[in-house]
Amino acid sequence: MRPGGPVPGGPGSKPKSFLPSLKRLLRRLAPERFVVGAIIVLVIASVVLNTLGPYLLGKATNLVFDGFVGKQLDPGLTKDQTVELLRRQGEDTRADMLSAMNVIPGTGIDFDAVGRVLAIVLTLYVAASLFGWMQGYLLNIVINRTVKRLRDEVEHKLHRLPLRYFDTAPRGDVLSRVTNDVDNVSQTLQQTMSQLLTSLFTVLGILIMMFWISPLLALIALLTVPAAIAVTAQIAKRSKPHFVDQWKYTGEVNSSVEEAYTGHEIITAFGRSREVGREFDKRNGKLYNASFRAQFISGLIMPAIMFLGNVNFVFIALVGGLRVATGNLSLGEVQAFIQYSRQFSQPLTQIGAMANLLQSGVASAERIFEILDAEEQSTDPLVEQPLPDGRGRVEFDDVSFGYDPESPVIEGLSLVADPGHVVAIVGPTGAGKTTLVNLLMRFYELDAGTIRIDGVDITTINREHLRERIGMVLQDTWLFQGTIRDNIAYGNPDATEADILDAARAAYVDRFVHSLPNGYDTVIDEEGGGVSTGEKQLITIARAFLAKPSILILDEATSSVDTRTELLVQHATAALRRDRTSFVIAHRLSTIRDADLIVVMQKGRIVEQGTHERLLAERGAYFDLYNAQFAAAE
């Protein structure tokens, strides 16, 4: 892989602002707009019923208090006469309070009326709970569908990104965005959407009821709102960068673990375990510090709002008591208002507590959006030019390419591979050998020039159709977790059992597979556990056999196997190359003596080409490579 510039949306990128990212995340709920509408209706219904509860309970309190006071009064006097008597006795405050009450002197508590009110309240609360359960159920469906679409979109986006992106992106960070960040967004939506909707509508409903009961007390209750908003905004502003760092360092820790796992043997062999452990501790420490600061700072929101709510409660209780004493409010109304004031601070506290979740979720959403916004590989032509049923004549015409525009790797290269011929590409490391075949596969796009297959420009061909015509056997073998049969069949999902066995015999897999516990049904993992390096290579060759490509690319297919296995691989690749155009990249020059054309590359240019005998006779670059290799061997 080649170094490049910073990854679009990588850890060093500047995060987007909170509100635009939150709006973009919420817009992903658009396909569920009708269900979301039903959820909002259910939330409103639940909030309305819950909001009416304290008001009706205040009515019950008034019935109890009125009955208790009425029982203490002289039954021979009416309410008005009792009030007048109190005023003549100089008890104006008591008279004002009694005048605002609905009492009948000598009459006690009407328990039937109290029971009816309580039954209504119970019915309201049961219905509110039912509506709340329904909206929670629907919201769960909406969020899981939305996150599923987001995962699908990220997965499909990864397949549309150019190889250049993955050359410069740390693998662990990409995996963290696709897994951890998507899961964090899901968790954030699950925990905040329902509470946020309920809290907002609860605040609105409670405000209406508080102004209905007493505008003065409502204004007192509202004094804490600007302070709560200011506190939440200031704390959230300071916690946001730490949440961004938290998920950035999570990606770095994942990268460190992934590198340590895949390179475990090398790390152990070179005795670098301590250094790797120190590097992990360093990154883990950064993650700890960022997480601690983010959670600690955002965690200050709830206690700050609770403190403001308690201060507000003191003023409401004091002023409310005076209003009852003067007869401007009933005891039940003050009780209901106090309940509303506590309920009013509760959703504000919940909104404050959700701020840290939102900060974390939006920080993760930004990292996901950075992948979704990354520049994609060029689109395939709308009208594809079909490849003729030729044998695979390949032409490189004045091709130039560089991973970095300032540092070209290949310049002005021209080459023709005739159908059925074997073209060997040799040269020192960094000469551009692998780059050449990567361009043929359209893993990268040319900076200049043209590549044609059977006379057709490959840029006019759909990438998928182009790659169906080409088979690759790489130096680094890749096997997925499954049976040997499944790994061979990966080359052609429609292959029959007979086709799979024929490919296995042609690639000499059949010679060792019967010694395994379950033969072709032996399960191996993605690292090839259970089979040797050479046997893995033979399985990949069988996979290429089954694909039946018209063009074959062999990239150092024998570089990591022993001499005996190399002979098997050479026999297998010789059979595989028959009747198809083949490109062979090789450092072992003894393996390409029978090639129809040997191309010698240096610094992105072809310096020599010809047969083995002709190039040796010219005593040029190939002659020097060949002699240097065998002199070193001797």
TrEMBL record:
Source superkingdom: Bacteria
Pfam families: ABC_membrane (PF00664), ABC_tran (PF00005)
Protein name: ABC transporter ATP-binding protein
Residues in ABC transporter domain copies: 394-628
Keyword check for Membrane: yes
SMART domains, alphabetized: AAA (SM00382)
Keyword Transmembrane belongs to the record: yes
Domain ABC transmembrane type-1 stretches: 38-360
The entry's keywords: ATP-binding, Membrane, Nucleotide-binding, Transmembrane, Transmembrane helix
Membrane topology recorded in Swiss-Prot or TrEMBL: Multi-pass membrane protein
Location(s), subcellular: Cell membrane
InterPro entries attached to this UniProt entry: AAA+_ATPase (IPR003593), ABC1_TM_dom (IPR011527), ABC1_TM_sf (IPR036640), ABC_transporter-like_ATP-bd (IPR003439), P-loop_NTPase (IPR027417), Type_1_exporter (IPR039421)
GO MF: ATP binding
Species this chain originates from: Nocardia halotolerans
Transmembrane spans: 34-57, 117-143, 196-213, 219-236, 296-322
